[in-house]
């Protein structure tokens, strides 16, 4: 029976991969599909091997064990009871009633999603891991192709940032929340680009965007709200500052209108979950910081000794939080193989950051055609990065959680002239002529 299960599921996976290959994509990206996909699938399997056979711990084990309870529900009480639970998240009347308290606890959403491939694979962890890794890859591949279509000079930086950067690939693979998160993010952002610039299939892309947003909400609601607000900010900036019909209005009035409109939208977003309420958010973030601090005794972490649960204190510590999130552990802080790998990657980020700063100080004034998108993205990266550093100062855990912002940072860093030339040098052995090539800038005129 196990051989039959393996065979059938591998055939289904092969069919899905073939369908992905047959999809219309940027010709420049096609050579990278299979190498990056195989890397993704391998990382998902590696997470399982490390969790079950090396460290014997990890969130992936918890998700797997809870998903097994749900597949047992389908076997014992029938597929109808399972489907009702799957779509309502209400364990009343099921064998999960005594375990899942309260029934709306988001920690059970990931096992619910995992239970779907688990049913298809008869509870096989590694086959289920392949399904989740494939979903994560497919969503990001969809997004990267959208970037390549509308910003063609940034195609290769997008591949590197979202599909090949080591920690991004590893931590968004397999049986982890980040697999669903990044796959959903790819669907949401890719569809948003097609809706913004394209004219075909608006209902399809709107549906994909909503599905992606809902999946993100299930696993990490605060990221879903942040992404929705980022898209709203980008749209408002475009409508107010890039609308020729409003060119005669003073920029101060435009700024005030933007503040009022975005504040109203942001307030609505904070009402979606009690933890996001403006009066509760500082205490929630500070409480998470204290809990993580206690659990990180003797481990590398970001310390904020004077941090207080106030917005002013968060703002004063924000630069330290962002730098720590992005560049720590430093190479001299490594004490085992895992921290050394993380520190080596962070050293690479530092090199890219210095390349960006070099071009920043040498560049003249640039007119950004898509400045509204860049501005919204920078706000998302900085605010989300800072909040992650406050909520999870343990550097080991933060290295995983930061994948929600890290690929965007890498993508932007690779767009400057110095780093784009370095990337071309690494990808090609032929003689380059930088003076004849346009710098890979996302929106420069």
Describe this structure in words.
It contains 20 helices and no strands. It is mainly α. 70% of the residues lie in helices and 0% in strands. The protein has a domain at 279-445.
Largest sheet: none
Q: How many extended strands?
A: 0
Number of helices: 20
C-alpha geometry: globular
Mean pLDDT: 88
Low-confidence stretches: 429-445
Instruction: Please report the distance between the alpha carbons of the first and last residues.
Output: 61 Å
Our estimate of the beta-strand percent is under 5%
Q: What integer value in Å does the Rg equal?
A: 23 Å
The helix/strand order is: HHHHHHHHHHHHHHHHHHHH
Share in helix: 55-70%
Kindly name the structural category: mainly alpha
What is the topological layout?
Layout: H1 2-22, H2 33-54, H3 59-77, H4 79-88, H5 109-120, H6 125-150, H7 155-164, H8 166-171, H9 177-197, H10 202-219, H11 221-241, H12 251-270, H13 281-295, H14 311-316, H15 318-327, H16 337-362, H17 371-391, H18 395-401, H19 406-413, H20 417-427
Which keywords apply here?
disordered C terminus, globular, transmembrane helix, transmembrane, 445 residues, mainly alpha, membrane
Outline of this structure?
The chain is mostly helical and 445 residues long. Helix content is 70%, strand content 0%. The chain crosses the membrane at residues 6-21, 33-55, 125-148, 155-173, 179-197, 204-237, 249-268, 337-358, 370-392, 398-416.
